[in-house]
Design brief:
Blueprint: H1 21-30, H2 36-54, H3 58-69, E1 73-80, E2 83-90, H4 93-110, H5 116-128, H6 133-149
Antiparallel strand pairs: 1-2
Length: 152
């Protein structure tokens, strides 16, 4: 029996500007050292950039991008005997969304040369079209999980 208490899930309040929980989650993940106003500015500029490039609803494009990137399974390393195996584990939707947000932001951090807002808007637009480095990461994870599922 576990000695630790069950952790209650914290409820995320919707973003005050766009009334979207997903945008608030992206803002919270983007925030560094508690500077939420800076994260809000980056997200707002990103949304304006998406709207300018696509002439569509930016919140809908962001939701589509997160849905496309969210993985169904995750790889966990398990030690069985003396060997370490990569075991695929199914994810619930909340965990899939948080992993998708992290992958998108990491792919933006790995790029250089352009302002962060433009990199983030380009990555979100690409993810909504099912291209880009975050989608590649998802496909790679699914491939690894599929190959390791046969081993178990």
């Amino acid at each position: 029996m576990s000695r630790n208490k069950k952790i209650k899930k914290q409820l995320v309040m919707p973003d005050p500007f766009f009334d979207s929980i997903l945008i608030q989650k992206i803002t919270n993940k983007l925030m560094k050292k508690g500077k939420k106003t800076l994260a809000h500015k980056i997200i707002n500029q990103t949304i304006k950039e998406i709207e300018k490039k696509t002439q569509k609803d930016p919140v809908q494009i962001i939701e589509q991008a997160i849905a496309n990137v969210a993985p169904a399974i995750e790889i966990k390393a398990r030690r069985i005997g003396g060997a370490v195996y990569s075991i695929p584990i199914e994810l619930d939707s909340e965990r899939g969304i948080s992993v998708a947000i992290r992958w998108i932001l990491n792919s933006c951090n790995n790029q250089s040369g352009k302002p962060y807002e433009i990199r983030l808007s380009n990555e979100l637009i690409d993810a909504s079209k099912k291209i880009g480095s975050a989608i590649r990461k998802r496909e790679e994870t699914h491939k690894i999980a599929e190959s390791n599922a046969r081993l178990m």
